[in-house]
């Protein structure tokens, strides 16, 4: 297990190089001159040149990249143009934690509801429960986040008054955004669990378990689920990435001050260091979550070997 | 109860198991009767699709409903009809009184559980032993089935073992609770020839040692010759010949049994060209012939065979055959043909 952890950890390095490279190149891919954009439209030639010099844009590309990575490792992601504060502070002072909270509870909701629905569906194949759950899952998958969010606000906040419409102060504020962001994942996990479970239940070792006199409950939860979870775990990891992306929309709909909104505001204000920083942090979080997923995967499926 | 009945550990009476598909009912097992005596071995022989595996799954009531269903018959185990048992009672019999070994050792073990866990599981369910005692018993079972360094193997996963080893683990699971009846569904089909012999030896020795009755399902007449005392030959869901092993191997009565035996290559015979085969193929289960089910492939078939299904007739020596040749009607028909021409 230790060698597995070390080896898996080392695999993160090339991924991180790719991520930082992509984020770094963003700066150079935006149309126009970054220095010009940052200095503002009214800046004269000298001011733009000064900006270019400040940003180090006159240096060779590889030097710029190494400097960027070096700074990033030391926790320096540049300074926000809009607020003039360090990007790191903008992100970590509160924004990222709100998004992480949202994504975490969204994942919990997706996993719990997805698994329960998937198991019920698979064990009662073609029953009324199965068909209705899968129809609901289809809705969950096809419904755009922003629309679901608005509908939830309309029914539960405006009409029924059960939950506040915007903000992020108490658990009551969290309910609707978490449902909005987690429902798609729940639907995918439910369908995935169902099909994976059905496949596993058809296996010879399930028949062996029955022939041993194992009870139906144990056959499902001990023998089948553990095997059925293998593909599901992968989906959960990928889902977390979608969740981070979904945060941009959900946070906008519910006016939650997370990193998603930060990115939107930064893009609107052409605050490039901010955009870069936020994307980098999200990418690192995604890589880290997938690292955890791989560990979980390994714990379930003993056959996984990085060789 | 007569002496014979007392000795019967299992008696299958008029067993009918069907599968219900969109195209109609498939009578996979259609009125099968046989019994197994204590400590004895019965072989069920037949081609794929003859209903031999379904018969064995029916005994443990492992047919997957609702697609498949036991529609008729009795399965009497130690004087009690298993078809009248509740689900819970059946669970306490499976793996405890009656155990089963399956054909595919590669896929019959759970890939996410260690071998030890899988053996210990049935011990814990049926003998109510604690975790530690069950583990010790699992190691003991691995030793019994001849797995070297069982203390190490007990912690290994199925993918770390070879096919032969896995089948040994399957046997260990099946015998863990000392069952009175062991059903082995083609236990050696998926294994190499050398491993086959080892596994058969192992089963036979353990059977002797533990006094288990054995029902062995196979299409390999070599296995039958090695292991069985009585043999039931099945074709399209029905028993066509039911006799002691010596009769089956040396003096078979049913044309199908004769065909099966002829198609086994013999070391003392020279063949120029191909091996003898049974011509044709098994009829579709949706479209079985009205008369004898073997009629389309039988070299002796006459009108009566096409029109009427023969009964399983008990011969003078007590063996049973389902064929018109061995009835009076056959001679009558011969005479009719002779007088007509």
Low-confidence stretches of chain A: none
Q: In CATH terms, what is the fold-level topology of the largest domain in chain A? A: MetI-like fold
The CATH architecture designation of chain B is 3-Layer(aba) Sandwich
- Structural class of the secondary structure composition of chain A? mainly alpha
Instruction: Tell me about the largest β-sheet of chain A.
Output: none
Write down the secondary-structure element order of chain A: HHHHHHHHHHHH
First-to-last CA distance of chain A:
13 Å
CATH architectural label of the largest domain in chain A: Orthogonal Bundle
Largest sheet of chain B: 8 strands, mixed
Radius of gyration of chain B: 22 Å
SS strand fraction of chain B: 15-25%
Q: List the total number of helices of chain A.
A: 12
For this structure, what is the CATH class of chain B? Alpha Beta
Number of domains of chain B: 1
The total beta strand count of chain A reads: 0
Amount of helix of chain A: over 70%
Characterise the protein shown here.
The complex is a heterodimer of chains A (307) and B (341). Chain A has 307 residues and is mostly helical. Chain A has two domains: 17-73, no CATH class; 94-300, MetI-like (MetI-like fold), CATH 1.10.3720.10. Helices cover 79% and strands 0% of the residues of chain A. Chain A has twelve helices and no strands. Chain A has helices spanning 2-29, 34-39, 45-55, 61-73, 87-123, 128-142, 145-159, 171-201, 204-211, 216-253, 259-268, 272-300. The two termini of chain A are 13 Å apart. With 341 residues, chain B is of the alpha/beta class. Chain B has a single domain (8-97, 179-339), classed as Rossmann fold, CATH 3.40.50. In chain B, 35% of the residues lie in helices and 23% in strands. Chain B has helices spanning 3-7, 52-59, 87-93, 115-127, 131-144, 150-153, 163-175, 193-210, 221-227, 245-250, 255-262, 303-307, 328-340, and strands spanning 8-21, 24-37, 41-45, 68-77, 80-81, 98-101, 181-185, 213-218, 230-235, 238-244, 313-314, 320-321. In chain B, the strands form two sheets. In chain B, strands 6-7-8-3-9-10-12-11 form an eight-stranded mixed sheet, sandwiched between helices. Chain B has a four-stranded antiparallel sheet with strand order 2-1-4-5. In chain B, helix 4 (115-127) packs across helix 5 (131-144) and helix 5 packs across helix 7. The N and C termini of chain B lie far apart (54 Å). The mean pLDDT of chain B is 88.
């Amino acid at each position: 297990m230790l060698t597995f952890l070390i080896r898996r950890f080392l695999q993160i390095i090339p991924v991180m190089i790719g991520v930082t490279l992509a984020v770094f190149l963003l700066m150079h891919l935006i149309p126009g001159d970054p220095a010009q954009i940052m200095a503002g439209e009214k800046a004269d030639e000298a001011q733009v040149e000064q900006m270019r010099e400040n940003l180090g844009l006159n240096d060779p590309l590889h030097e710029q990249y190494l400097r960027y990575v070096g700074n990033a490792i030391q926790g320096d992601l540049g300074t926000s143009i809009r607020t003039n504060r360090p990007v790191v502070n903008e992100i970590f002072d509160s924004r990222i934690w709100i998004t992480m909270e949202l994504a975490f509870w969204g994942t919990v909701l997706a996993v719990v509801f997805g698994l329960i629905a998937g198991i019920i569906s698979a064990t009662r194949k073609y029953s009324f429960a199965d068909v209705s759950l899968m129809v609901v899952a289809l809705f969950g998958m096809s419904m755009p986040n922003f629309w679901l969010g608005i509908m939830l606000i309309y029914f539960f906040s405006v009409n029924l008054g059960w939950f506040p419409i915007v903000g992020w102060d108490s658990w009551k504020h969290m309910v609707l955004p978490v449902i909005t962001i987690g429902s798609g994942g729940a639907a995918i996990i439910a369908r995935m669990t169902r099909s994976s479970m059905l496949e596993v239940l058809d296996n010879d070792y399930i028949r062996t378990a029955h022939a041993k006199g194992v009870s139906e409950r144990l056959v499902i939860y001990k023998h089948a689920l553990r095997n059925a979870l293998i593909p599901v775990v992968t989906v959960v990891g990928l889902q977390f990435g979608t969740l981070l992306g979904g945060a941009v929309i959900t946070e906008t709909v519910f006016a939650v001050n997370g990193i998603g909104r930060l990115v939107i505001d930064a893009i609107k204000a052409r605050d490039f260091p901010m955009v870069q920083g936020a994307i980098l942090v999200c990418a690192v979080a995604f890589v880290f979550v997938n690292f955890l997923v791989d560990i979980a995967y390994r714990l379930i499926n003993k056959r996984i070997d990085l060789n | 109860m007569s002496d014979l009945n007392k000795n019967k550990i299992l008696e299958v009476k008029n067993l009918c198991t069907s599968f219900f598909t969109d195209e109609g009912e498939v009578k996979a097992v259609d009125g099968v009767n046989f019994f197994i005596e204590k400590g004895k071995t019965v072989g069920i022989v037949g081609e794929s699709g003859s209903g031999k595996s379904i018969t064995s799954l029916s005994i443990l009531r492992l047919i997957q409903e609702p697609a498949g269903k036991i529609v008729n018959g009795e399965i009497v185990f130690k004087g009690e009809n298993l078809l009248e048992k509740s689900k819970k009672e059946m669970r306490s019999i499976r793996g405890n009184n009656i155990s089963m070994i399956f054909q595919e050792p590669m896929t019959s073990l759970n890939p996410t559980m260690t071998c030890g866990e899988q053996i210990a599981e049935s011990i814990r369910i049926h003998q109510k032993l604690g975790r530690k005692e069950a583990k010790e018993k699992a190691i003991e079972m691995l030793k019994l089935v001849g797995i070297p360094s069982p203390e190490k193997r007990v912690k290994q996963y199925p993918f770390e073992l070879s096919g032969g080893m896995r089948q040994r683990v399957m046997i260990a699971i099946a015998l863990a609770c000392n069952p009175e009846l062991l059903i082995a569904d083609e236990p050696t089909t998926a294994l190499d020839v050398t491993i086959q012999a080892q596994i058969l030896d192992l089963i036979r020795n353990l059977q002797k040692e533990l006094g288990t009755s054995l029902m062995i399902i196979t299409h390999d007449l070599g296995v039958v010759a090695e292991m069985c005392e009585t043999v039931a030959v099945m074709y399209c869901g029905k028993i066509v010949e039911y006799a002691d092993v010596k009769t089956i191997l040396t003096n078979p009565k049913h044309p199908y049994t004769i065909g099966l035996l002829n198609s086994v290559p013999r070391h003392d015979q020279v063949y120029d060209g191909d091996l003898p085969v049974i011509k044709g193929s098994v009829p579709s289960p949706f479209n079985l012939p009205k008369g004898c089910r073997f009629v389309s492939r039988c070299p002796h078939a006459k009108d009566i065979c096409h029109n009427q299904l023969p009964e399983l007739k008990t011969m003078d020596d007590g063996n049973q055959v389902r064929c018109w040749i061995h009835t009076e009607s056959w001679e009558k028909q011969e005479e009719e043909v002779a007088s007509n021409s």
